[in-house]
Design a protein that fits this description.
The chain is 39% helix and 11% strand. The chain is an alpha/beta fold. It is globular, with a radius of gyration of 17 Å.
């Protein structure tokens, strides 16, 4: 990897202008042009979506990719869709967000001690990036982890984020102290002393079927909060 940009703002500018993956460029821009009926009057972002949050964060939340009519529309990760409602509601209840909703980039949402991002920055068709697209994009997550130099706890939303975050951390010498297997509320201790939690992704497929409930998601972020508070002293 080349050197990380000098700041998160510089990295965000680099991410939002990326055109490395032709298939993803065609898809994200096509969605932004065609829109859907309920958002016909809105101007879509239609570009890669940077991470969002507190530059001094000790908690990093990692998802798969922006939703076609969520982050790809609003320009902010996990914003403007039901998955975002679940995530930011849980972050608010755990004390990491000043409000429980996230509908647009200018809605007043602020994160405290937390940063939210994704493995892939463009909305992929059927939520399935190819391995090559993932590998081109994961360098941005790598840069965020370098720049967010106070991180102590990671929460991976879904198996895709979990597997790729473990791989990225291992490549940087921060290996799990025991086999890392994805499950909801799974805890992985890392050699650096940092901790990774698995959490089911708050997709409609999981929340509508009851595979993920509000108390289940709250439990993961409550444990993240407990760990961070215990290390503050």
């Amino acid at each position: 990897m080349s050197a990380a940009p000098p700041s998160l703002d510089a990295l965000s500018r680099t991410i939002s202008s990326c055109r490395k993956c032709p298939r993803l460029v065609r898809y994200r821009e096509g969605v932004a042009k065609e829109k859907v009926r309920r958002f016909q009057d809105e101007k879509y972002w239609g570009r890669p979506v940077p991470g969002f949050g507190d530059p001094k964060a000790r908690l990093l939340v990692v998802g798969l990719a922006p939703a076609a009519h969520g982050g790809n529309r609003t320009g902010r990760v996990f914003t403007g869709d039901r998955s975002g409602d679940w995530l930011y509601g849980a972050l608010h209840r755990a004390g990491f967000a000043n409000q429980p909703t996230s509908v647009s980039r200018d809605d007043g949402l602020a994160l405290r001690d937390a940063y939210v991002t994704a493995v892939v920055r463009c909305a992929p068709p059927d939520n399935r990036p190819t391995p090559a697209e993932r590998d081109r994009c994961i360098t941005y997550l790598e840069c965020e982890i370098i720049l967010l130099d106070r991180l102590r706890v990671f929460v991976a939303l879904g198996g895709f984020a979990f597997t790729n975050l473990v791989r990225l951390l291992r490549n940087h010498g921060d290996r799990p102290t025991a086999p890392a297997r994805f499950a909801h509320a799974a805890r992985v201790d890392l050699e650096s002393g940092r901790v990774l939690f698995g959490c089911y992704h708050p997709s409609q497929q999981n929340t509508f079927t009851g595979r993920l409930t509000g108390p289940m998601m709250d439990g993961v972020f409550a444990e993240a909060r407990r760990l961070l508070d215990s290390r503050r002293a």
